[in-house]
TrEMBL record:
This is Glycosyltransferase. The chain crosses the membrane at residues 489-509. CDD domains: GT1_Gtf-like. Keywords: Glycosyltransferase, Membrane, Signal, Transferase, Transmembrane, Transmembrane helix. The keyword Transferase applies. Gene3D superfamilies: Glycogen Phosphorylase B. Residues 1-24 form the signal peptide. Coiled coil: none annotated. PANTHER family: EG:EG0003.4 PROTEIN-RELATED, FI06409P-RELATED. GO terms for molecular function: UDP-glycosyltransferase activity. It holds the Pfam family UDPGT. InterPro entries: UDP-glycosyltransferase, UDP_glucos_trans.
Length: 514
């Protein structure tokens, strides 16, 4: 009897091991260094993959240890691979402080200058060693960071890219051959509205596109690929080798555009219902009866240098309750705000729980992709003060859909802020537009939740790799910008037209003379 029981136990163990081997894979997720909103998307994917029985790891910067300790505290199964950092928290904060003051052109210039002098991937050998030890079957790469593509190519690992932003040109054009005309699609940082394609708007978008493409030539990371023994590759060339591309943005919010079959807009991962709001904060919102503002400038806490005019506004609006999320409540920049009876400073809040509270009046945000997506999902009107990156486009989307307004960070005067806050709080049209968009986004998730869509595609690609099968058609060969825009064809046609017209005119003159 004892032998039978042992035999049954061994058989069960063998079957379980075989089942795990058949169903479970090892997936390594990467995230852009210091981009904590990106980390949240990576963690959401990691949880879902673990729930499906996969072994999961995540690469994060050593500078983000404190953030990860807080947000991955309930994930003991997550293998964390540490990428060393040459930056300190103070250095990163000083960069964000500069960003808060600079225009888009100034930031682009600053980025190019930094890229000229910095080594983009200084720890390639160390990270290759960590990746070998972890032995992933698939890399899921945050497309905003170039270094993981080097690891994937060097180790011969299949990879999927994900972009926790709205579809943007020219990045998608350069990296994934998505056809995006500057006349129809805003360039990151331009604030162009393709639904009102004025000449000046198209001109500005084209110029921003040229500058971004020029800056991107500096950011090929060619030297890092060469040091890794792959001089023929670059950031964009390696990114094009992704088996699939996941755009973590809701089609309902985005401008419609044709996508290649392997590029999927699956929806934002972070918006969800539920979550717990602190009893004290919930009580504040209930007492405010809809005249309340949740103010947050994202996980980076950008906003300290701009605090003064907002403090003046909240002092002038004593009947508006303000819950203001800051990175450091003891910062001297917020000392006067802390004294106002209608302002509560907090260093952390469950944003979905906050935005999902029925008594919240509006959301004052930096216009980050996660924040805009969550506000739209919960039906909360917004006022956006874009700081950098794609935030101008996110703010423009909110304005187009009718559930928000935007302010230029260089025009932050207390009277202008007050006017816009009162406008959004007291105009029911913003709330109605937000509610309509919320219903659409929730219906989209009833069909198939974005997290499930992402994990389904990752699992399909893991299976395709095992079977040595293609899952998407081969992409068309990349074209130069002038080929893609048919500039050479248009020039040739213009020359033919001029030459043909000249020949015809000459013929008519000859006939007339005779």
């Amino acid at each position: 009897m004892l032998l039978r029981q042992w035999g049954a136990a061994v058989l069960l163990l063998v079957l379980l091991c075989g089942l795990t081997d058949a169903l479970g894979a090892t997936v390594l997720i990467t995230s852009k260094p210091y981009a904590r909103s990106h980390h949240l998307n990576g963690l959401r994917l990691a949880r879902a993959l673990h729930e499906r029985g996969h072994r999961v790891g995540m690469v994060v910067s050593a500078l983000d240890d404190t953030f990860m300790a807080k947000h991955a505290a309930d994930m003991p199964y997550l293998h964390q691979l540490r990428e060393p950092s040459d930056y300190t928290e103070e250095m990163v904060r000083s960069i964000f402080d500069q960003v808060e003051k600079k225009s888009n052109l100034e930031m682009l210039t600053m980025m190019v200058e930094r890229l000229r002098t910095a080594e983009p991937c200084p720890y390639t050998d160390l990270m290759l060693s960590q990746c070998r030890d972890f032995q992933p079957d698939m890399l899921v790469i945050d497309g905003a960071s170039p270094c993981p593509y080097i690891w994937a190519e060097k180790l011969g690992l299949p990879h999927i890219s994900f972009l926790p932003v709205q579809p943007l040109q020219p990045i998608l054009s350069i990296h994934h051959d998505v056809p995006m005309s500057p006349a129809r699609w805003p360039c990151m940082g331009s604030g162009y509205n393709p639904y009102a394609p004025s000449f000046l708007g198209r001109l500005g978008n084209q110029m921003t596109t040229y500058m971004t493409v020029a800056a991107w030539q500096v950011f090929t990371v060619q030297s890092s690929f060469a040091k890794a023994g792959m001089p023929e590759l670059s950031y964009s060339a390696a990114a094009r080798r992704s088996r699939a591309v996941l755009i973590l943005s809701d089609p309902l919010l985005d401008h419609p555009a044709p996508m290649p079959s392997n590029v999927k807009s699956i929806g934002a991962l972070l918006p969800h219902e539920g979550g717990e709001l602190e009893i004290e904060l919930a009580a504040l919102l209930e007492r405010a009866g809809g005249r309340s503002v949740y103010m947050s400038f994202g996980t980076t806490g950008v906003g300290g240098l701009s605090a003064r005019p907002f403090i003046d506004v909240w002092a002038q609006l004593p009947n508006v309750t303000v819950i203001w999320k800051v990175s450091n409540a003891s910062d001297a920049a917020f000392s006067e705000a802390a004294k106002l009876p209608n302002v509560r400073l907090v260093e952390w809040v469950d944003q979905n729980a906050m935005l999902g509270h029925p008594d919240l009046g509006m959301f004052l945000t930096h216009g980050g992709h996660n924040s805009i997506s969550e506000a739209a999902f919960h039906g909360v009107p917004i006022l956006a003060v874009a700081i950098f990156g794609d935030q101008w486009e996110s703010a423009a989307r909110a304005k187009f859909h009718g559930f928000g307004e935007s302010l230029d960070k260089r025009m932050l005067r207390s009277e202008v802020i007050k006017e816009h806050v009162v406008k959004v709080l007291e105009n029911d049209g913003y709330k109605q537009a937000a509610a309509r968009l919320s219903r659409g986004m929730k219906l989209f998730r009833k069909r198939r939740h974005p997290v499930d869509s992402a994990v389904d595609l990752i699992e399909d690609e893991i299976e395709a790799v095992k079977e040595d099968a293609a899952s998407f058609p081969l992409p068309l060969p990349p074209l130069r910008w002038w080929q893609n825009s048919q500039v050479d064809v248009h020039v040739a046609l213009a020359l033919l037209l001029v030459l043909g017209g000249g020949a015809l005119a000459r013929l008519l003159l000859c006939c007339y003379d005779h």
